[in-house]
Design a protein that fits this description.
Blueprint lengths: L5 H8 L8 E6 L2 E2 L23 H4 L11 E4 L3 E6 L9 E7 L14 E6 L8 E5 L2 E5 L7 E11 L10 E12 L21 H4 L33 E5 L27 E3 L15 E5 L2 E4 L1
Parallel strand pairs: 3-10
Antiparallel strand pairs: 1-2, 1-4, 4-8, 5-6, 5-9, 7-11, 9-10, 12-14, 13-14
The structure holds 2-acetamido-2-deoxy-beta-D-glucopyranose (NAG) and copper (II) ion.
Length: about 300
């Protein structure tokens, strides 16, 4: 049997309870009711982890039936708001895919292009992620008018692969773009297919020698060509990750009668409803309750 460190074990068993969902859309300063223009999923606020599943498009059980489609002018800003702010480290991206007919009838099987990435900022010497309760994106001015699925994704990489499986938090809004142009947005990718177990942005351990990061998926499309880093969203909370301190894990020499000792590495989960893992944080960090479902060593 392969021996795992205590830290690896605590990462592997963690994170089974509820999380967060992008559930509400705002257009031009108007915030619409929950799931009016966003496809309602059937898995509460849990993530998708299967890289080959069609659920990666718009989440589990999220179809166009019962979802309305909102008109958005090209160049306008659209905001996704969550039930609970994103609290897992990882990138947030926004994709679009043009519907051959109406957005409500579209299954997302066509090409997707990316219009925005929020990746980590390393300028302070450690990684700072944009963890927020809402994310605002501008619809590109040059894309053709018509119906689209507008898809937001947070890739939670807080439990490093392969001991932990990265988590996709996804929602799709249905929009009709008006006043668009004759641009040819790309590059486009298929979903599933766009994310692989070989992507450095999927496999990276953010707690160990984390110095650079490539957000998975295609390059961000911009009407004036080239990459568009975009502007930061108006309200953000940020979390600084630091190199995880080396914890002295008990080793195989402990006697069978000694009580199990374990510590959760900084940034790991240490509590929450249903949590059965370690609750003691490594030296230098304390267990902080994010919500009923998640406490983290900070
Ligand atoms: C960091 O940069 C190196 C060198 O370009 C690259 O091989 C690696 O995949 C990058 N890591 C991430 C997580 O993007
Ligand atoms: Cu989680």
């Amino acid at each position: 049997m392969k021996l795992l460190s205590v830290a690896a074990l605590s990462l592997a068993v963690g994170d089974v309870s509820a999380h967060y969902i992008f559930q509400q859309l705002s257009v031009g300063g108007t915030k619409y009711p929950v799931f009016q223009y966003i496809r309602k999923n059937s898995n509460y606020n849990s993530p998708v982890t299967d890289l080959s599943s069609n659920d990666l498009r718009c989440n589990v059980g999220a179809s166009g039936s019962g979802t309305e489609t909102v008109s958005v002018r090209a160049g306008d800003s659209v905001t996704f708001t969550l039930d609970t702010p994103v609290y897992h480290q990882g990138p947030v991206s926004v994709y679009m895919s043009k519907a051959p007919g109406s957005a409500a009838d579209y299954d997302g099987s066509g090409g997707w292009f990316k219009i925005k990435d929020w990746g980590p900022d390393f300028s302070s010497g450690s990684a700072t992620w944009t963890l927020s309760g809402s994310y605002t994106v501008q619809i590109p001015t040059c894309i053709p008018s018509g119906d689209y699925l507008l898809r937001i994704q947070n890739l939670g990489i807080h439990n490093p692969w392969p001991a932990g499986i990265p988590q996709f938090y996804i929602s799709c809004a249905q929009i009709t773009v008006t006043g668009g142009g004759s641009g040819n947005p790309g590059p486009t990718v298929s979903i599933p297919g766009a994310f692989k177990e070989t992507d450095p942005g999927y496999t990276v351990n953010i707690y160990s020698n984390f110095r650079n990061y490539t957000v998975p998926g295609p390059a961000v499309f911009s009407c004036n060509g080239g990459g568009n880093p975009g502007t930061p969203p108006p309200t953000t909370t940020t979390l600084v990750t630091s190199v995880r301190p080396t914890t002295a894990a008990p080793t195989t020499s402990s006697s069978p009668t000694s009580p199990p000792t374990c510590t959760v590495a900084k940034w790991g989960q240490c509590g929450g409803l249903g949590w059965t893992g370690c609750t003691t944080c490594a030296a230098g960090s304390t267990c902080n309750k994010a919500n009923d479902f998640y406490s983290q060593c900070v």
